[in-house]
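ESCALATION

Customer reports they have been waiting on this structure for their group meeting. Please prioritize. Original submission:
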Amino acid sequence: MIKVNLPLLEISGADYGADEAEMVRYRDEGTRRALAMDNRGPIRFDADGKLDPGILAAYSRDGFYIFEGVLGAEERAEIERDVAEMLERAPVAKDAPLDKHGRPALGADCQARTVGWVKPLSDPIGGTDASFGRHPAKMNEPEAPADAPEHVMQIVLGSLQFSEACLRVYGHPGLLAVTEAINGPDFTPFNEAVWIKHPRLGGSVAWHQDGFTHWDNPELDEGSHGFNYMAQLYGCDAANGLWVVPGSHRQGKMDIKAMVAAAGSDRLPDAVPLICAPGDVAITNRQAIHGSFANTSPNVRVTINMGFHRRKSVLGVKSGGIHSPVTTYDEDYIRRRARMIMYAIDARRQRFPYETPYPYAPLADAAEQWRWTAAAKTEIKDYNLQDIGI
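Update from on-call: job pushed to the front of the queue and completed.
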């Protein structure tokens, strides 16, 4: 049993009703198939410092990979403390200006979107036109427990401004080296968030492919829309974790609605769950079909999420307004947003001086400008107004 030191609600159990037995079977089968795949292990580099080609091949084939044991117990404890503070500072109710202690709530003074909410065990966007309709089929919504609150906090956007521990993960030299191997040394940010899948309350995220910009681009390939890292604080399983359809990132834009109809339910037969231990970090291609079910289990999932793009995929591209205001991503915009990588590298250097910091080439000429100081902590407020979504 993993000890969880978070201020979580004590809620009675819930399940999928008459469909519970089928859901249990689906989870068990998915778990067996996931663990039989050859796409997990520690981050490995060769003698020349290049990422193990076997990792690159597996990621290219499946669209995801599990890096095992990336975050140690000490670092996870620091992340846990910050996440607990986020929960303590959460608005007392959806859109409330104060927290439960009467203080200004987390993100209340921010212009950018910060705290996102969901009704317990619900799917708020599946089958709607939200985000260009990229969640075309609704997920099953189990009945919420009688003692459930009206809403639960599901996501904290712009999380690096609220958590130095998350900022330090963002500067992890191994993860940034993997990013370079996949997206090139001039890679750019996407966005960052903390996902909290509350036990017996967490809502679902309908099946989708993240990208919306390059599907009709004649130069579309498997890396056009970037990827996400998902660092697991407590681990995740088939009940509370993300599910991915292996290889779907290489198929272009797929008809998810037709796939769900053919399956006869929201249980896509080819999907597998991310099975992670505490401290594992999954990398998932944003073009892969992925989603998650309502969390009827007693286990919380906390995911430290951060994504990256290839520069050629974003430079000169006009955003769609999902992750940032409608704008064109020019060199100045990208450079300004990429300062968060430099702050993260320096914050990690200060906390873990025995590590060799990652050298981020695009801003190497101005490294002294981006030291992590008290002034920098103030400067990054609302940094996610300049997220880079494609």
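Sent to customer with the following note: The mean pLDDT is 96.
Escalation resolved.
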